[in-house]
Amino acid sequence: MTIKGKAYIAGIFEHPTRHAPDKSTAQLHAEVAKGAIEDAGISKADIDGYFLAGDAPGGTWPMVDYLGLKVRHIDSTDTGGCSYLIHLGHAGAEADFEAAYGATTHNAYGMCAMRHMHDYGTTSEQLAWIKVAASHHAQYNPHAFLKDVVTVEDVLNSPMISDPLHRLDCCVVTDGGGALIVTTPEIAKSLKKPQVRLIGHGEAMKGPRGGKDLDLTYSAGVWSGPRAFEEAGVTPKDIKYASIYDSFTITVLMQLEDLGFCRKGEGGRFVADGNLISGVGKLPFNTDGGGLCSNHPVNRGGMTKIIEAVRQLRGEAHPKVQVKNCDLAIAHGTGGLLGVRHAASTCILERV
Amino acid sequence: MAEAKKYPAPIINAETAHFWEAAKQGKFLIKRCTACGEPHYFPRSICPFCFSDKTVWEESSGEATIYTFSLMRKSASGPYAIAYVTLKEGPSLQTNIVDCDIDKLKIGQKVKVVFKPTDGAPLPFFTPV
Lengths: 352, 129
Known about the structure:
Number of helices of chain B: 1
Order of helices and strands of chain B: HEEEEEEEE
Structural class of chain A: alpha/beta
CATH architecture of chain B: Beta Barrel
Radius of gyration of chain B: 15 Å
CATH architecture of the largest domain in chain A: 3-Layer(aba) Sandwich
Largest sheet of chain B: 5 strands, antiparallel
CATH superfamily of the largest domain in chain A: Thiolase/Chalcone synthase
Oligomer: heterodimer
Strand order of the largest sheet of chain B: 6-5-4-7-8
Number of strands of chain A: 8
Structural class of chain B: mainly beta
Order of helices and strands of chain A: HEHEHHHHHEEHEHEHHHHEE
Largest sheet of chain A: 4 strands, mixed
CATH topology of the largest domain in chain A: Peroxisomal Thiolase, Chain A, domain 1
Shape of chain B: globular
Distance between the termini of chain B: 20 Å
CATH class of chain B: Mainly Beta
Distance between the termini of chain A: 21 Å
């Protein structure tokens, strides 16, 4: 691949200030963005990507939200050795206004589940079916952190962590990890493994965006999913296997709706009665047991989502969960806090 | 009880200092863009909707309804209710619902702003009307 001739610089802006004790860091980022947009003669609505390094307060989620951007490409690469020290040192733009309220992963996702139940009548029993399906798959994975098959009652009887999410609505947190080798078509053909290729990708971000029209019942998957399907030239109906990020049961339900596997609000009915169990239901998901039962290394579960999708496409999943003639799969994930600020990424994978 | 909590003092910068000064007077401010007319929260110098820098401070009624909430049961400092509330003026914001029986909270319930002291400027919370 070459970048030659593919990138033009259309707008520039250098902030005139050299000393700004009267401005916040986020404000300076907004001012230079505004200056460059005006220099290019375009508007904020034309902006669909955002690149930043560790000098932006709090990183990508707070800054995209602060600026009110609708992006389809995010890059926060920062090779400075002190990046994390910088992030720690700069409180996020939103932190002054939210730090005291005790947002955690559990209650941020709990708020989404609470509103989804309110708007669509989704029940705890329906959410529990997602854990039940994951546990049915995990029993065949010798490395799964939780190998026992659980029932809907087991989930409902587990302690309430943050309403309406019970302990068994939550994923595991594990050590471990994974890696991928990405290469060219020519090299892939020369290797012995079945060829699996990426045919569609989308990414997006979502946050409260100034508090206008807040809706916690959908994720940034409503934007990343259609982009990936369009690029791939396929639809959700064509997908044989789905790796869906499962930090909590509600995460899976909302993302399935957002990706178009069912209509918004119908996720509860879609996941019930074993519809996500391989060999039983219509959409086999997370056949390794997923983050809910098997593995969620360092809260970076996107890696294991891709790996299990590749196993399915190669025909290397456990025989008890292998999807027959699996030639098209999706791997989709959400990062950050679903109820606060998050990013989403969708990959459509195909066996050649 | 959540009420006994000690809350961290907000970090104040030049962009938000006016908000915290008003909070000391018991006033809850939002920002409104005079170019596109949209209110927003938390306050920014540049409008997050149209990118105009013509944003002005406006005192909110402090009246809101609960959009959603979750009761955190496993917390070293005791259970607490995190929530999003929607202000009468439009914007929704993250907060805690305080000074109440959190087990009785409902989506759609009317709440109003209440300030809690810190070692610095007071912080806005909401409580049932």
